[in-house]
Amino acid sequence: MLPANYQIRLMQPSDFSEIIEICKRVYPTDTPYTPDELNEHHRVFSEGQFVAIDAPHGAVAGVHFTLRLRLRDFHVDDPWDILTAGGTFADHNPEGHTLYGADIMVHPTHQRHGIAHALTDSARSLTQAENLWRMVGASRLPGYGKRRASMPPEQYVAAVVRGELVDPVLTAHLKDGWTVVRPIHGYLPHDDESDGWAAVIQ
Ligand SMILES: CC(C)(COP(=O)(O)OP(=O)(O)OC[C@H]1O[C@@H](n2cnc3c(N)ncnc32)[C@H](O)[C@@H]1OP(=O)(O)O)[C@@H](O)C(=O)NCCC(=O)NCCS
């Protein structure tokens, strides 16, 4: 499935500067990760931080950051800042039964090559290897903002699930095996493209 020129491995400190550049490209209005934050992710749960490498060029093409949580400590509509302890992953719980997908991003040059799918499969393999109960996450809905006047988010998400509408992010997550729990507001409050909405997925 993944083209032969890409490989998945665990994140290393030497990847940090390239990851920050990808972050700036795919989230241009957000503050990018800092080296200190990436170092913390690496320190608290190195086995849950995956990168895809464009092997011929030795370049980082995409990343998937995960941590383990005990879900009863959280609510279904908690925002990203709460679920990640402000992006530090300090809430990673080695006893947590849920693998939470905090972020997945692929450099625009490398999108639509199956990289997100392969990164998701790596997290799925970790979930199985550690005998965890589930993976959860939340999908941005960047196609929703321009439709907000014509339909509520529940209707939009249902149409994407049925394949009647295509969302640049939720459609990819659905194809990668995630299912929708429910839309929530305020997961990423400054995500204007999504009008502040996201879909909790598992
Ligand atoms: C969402 C994202 C991670 C997908 O990465 P990707 O590597 O391009 O995805 P894949 O190539 O693995 O695609 C998986 C499937 O989704 C489909 N897909 C991917 N992007 C799509 C899009 N924009 N529109 C429709 N379908 C799409 C692919 O065609 C593929 O389908 P297939 O299995 O039938 O072949 C990437 O677009 C991205 O980094 N976006 C910006 C950051 C972001 O918003 N991340 C999500 C945070 S919740």
Number of domains: 2
Question: For this structure, what is the CATH class of the largest domain?
Answer: Alpha Beta
Spatial separation of the terminal alpha carbons: 22 Å
Shape: globular
Number of helices: 6
Q: What small molecules accompany the polymer chains?
A: coenzyme A
Number-wise, the strands total 7
- Assigned CATH architecture of the largest domain: 3-Layer(aba) Sandwich
Work out the helicity level. Answer: 25-40%
Q: At the fourth CATH level, what is the homologous superfamily of the largest domain?
A: Gcn5-related N-acetyltransferase (GNAT)
- Helix-strand pattern: EHHEEHEHEHHEE
Structural class by helix and strand composition: alpha+beta
The major sheet is characterized as: 7 strands, mixed
Describe the strand arrangement of the main beta sheet, using strand numbers: 1-2-3-4-5-7-6
Mean pLDDT: 97
- Quaternary arrangement of the chains shown? single chain
Our Rg estimate from Cα atoms comes to 16 Å
User: Which residues form runs of ≥5 with pLDDT under 50?
Assistant: none
The CATH topology of the largest domain corresponds to Aminopeptidase
Q: How much beta, percentage-wise? A: 15-25%
